Amino acid sequence: MSMIQASDTVTSRRGFIKTTGQFAAASALAGVALPHVHAADSDTIQVALIGCGGRGSGAAANALSVKKGPMKVVAMADVFTDRLKTSYDALKRSRQGDMVDVPEERKFIGFDAYKQAMDCLKPGDVAIFATPLAFRWVHFKYAIQKGINVFMEKPLTADGPTSRRMLELADQATAKNIKVGVGLMSRHSRALQELSKRIEDGEIGDIILLRGYRMHGPVGSFASLPKPAGTSELLYQIKRFHSFLWASGGGYSDFYIHHIDHLCWLKGSWPVKAQALGGRHYRQAPEGGTYVDQNLDSYSVEYTFADGAKFIMDGRCMTGCENIYSSYVHGAKGMAVAAESGDCGLPSRIFKGQNRSRSNMLWESKVAPDEQDPYQNEWNSLLDAIRNNKPYNEAKRGIEASLVTSLGRMAAHTGQEITYDDILNGDHEFAPDLEKLTLTGPAPLRAGPDGKYPVPMPGINKDREYLDVKTA
């Protein structure tokens, strides 16, 4: 059941804060005697890195930087040999290089590599999932079977069917006392934690409006030209995952989820519906050729909460336009800067009234230097829960944040007003039978005879974000 279905099931702000906090999804286990894992601080916790791109390598470095108790990376997995090698070399050169013990026989390549890497662990160790999101449920299911704790990068899902599947797995993880961290690091920003408390205490009054902006030039694999001849279509799509909805939720889900997550957290609820607009202004590459990815390059989404409050999320990937990368909360008595710059950049501030001026500032966050990195904070919390056997499962709220992000994206891609229940209960699974993928098999998304992939057609495709070539 969704946390947002009708007015009697929408939680209060205080209830939301309690149920989506650091140990939310595991709260039912509080006070229950649970089996211990790594009870002694001297026990070495082993780590398997599954997905060796930049974010995966960064997560591994954060894991090895946790100061309480020994850690060791013992296995790595990817579908690309060069990516695994680059990640391994970087980790070995880092300050934590002596904590990386991955000989050639524990470096695994292919779609079964995640199993081989996790088979190197024992119950209570940690697997990092930093592949494109489509593989989350497959990897999570195996980790639960093995009794392995998990850290998984955002987003977690891009469609309704996989979200429902992941919610079931989240409950299974809680029942087995598996600790789960999710890479929505804003929740571990000390400035945002303090701001959340102050908003909860009424310092800016009832929230009326929230605004999020991530507007800059193209980044990552946002835009893609046709697949080079002789290249596997499947591996091409995985390598350029930002371009394809099945792999990442597209630029909207991958780029904007942090602002969507922390602004809904500050509001104290998830929105119940969204309407939106978006477009693709530029399909021609400067170097020549036509982009074939599934992204729009501009989005403006209006989310609505059960109490009528609004949240506007504006996103843009265009060169030469004004860059804005920040988030704001407006209340009846004042306003707050949530993220000054970036996904959750310091400082957070509160102002009286709606004008952001130094004379109106009532509060500015002050964070100790050793707690200013939310990426490290989230790993410190996860490892503390593992070593001290505290209930800890961030999966449910990570799935809900992913759903709300997909809700806004679907509203833009279809041109329709979409409700939370619409996206949660939808039947369009972008990558069915994902667990059966092979290196030589077909991709979940097929290009047409012209080499172009299906794209959103708002107002024409009203109940799906795109029509598969094979069913169009």
What can you tell me about this protein's structure?
This protein has helices at about 15-20, 55-65, 80-95, 115-120, 135-145, 160-175, 190-200, 235-240, 245-250, 250-265, 375-385, 395-415, 420-425; strands at about 45-50, 70-80, 105-110, 125-130, 150, 180, 205-215, 275-280, 300-305, 310-315, 325-330, 335-340, 350, 360-365, 420. By secondary structure, the protein is α/β, with parallel strands linked by helices. The two termini are about 30 Å apart. The model is unreliable at about 1-35 (pLDDT under 50).
Outline:
The chain has 472 residues and is an alpha/beta fold.
> Which structural class do the helices and strands define?
alpha/beta
So how many helices? 13
Distance between the termini: 32 Å
Rg (C-alpha, Å): 22 Å
**Major sheet, described briefly?**
9 strands, mixed
Overall average pLDDT: 91
Taking pLDDT < 50 over at least 5 consecutive residues as the criterion, the unreliable ranges are 1-37
Number of strands: 15
Walk across the major sheet and give the strand order. Answer: 14-13-12-11-7-10-9-8-15
Write down the oligomeric state: single chain
Which sequence of SSEs, written as H and E, runs from N to C? HEHEHEHEHEHEHEHHHEEEEEEEHHEH
Give the % helix: 25-40%
Relative strand content: 15-25%
What general form does the structure show? globular
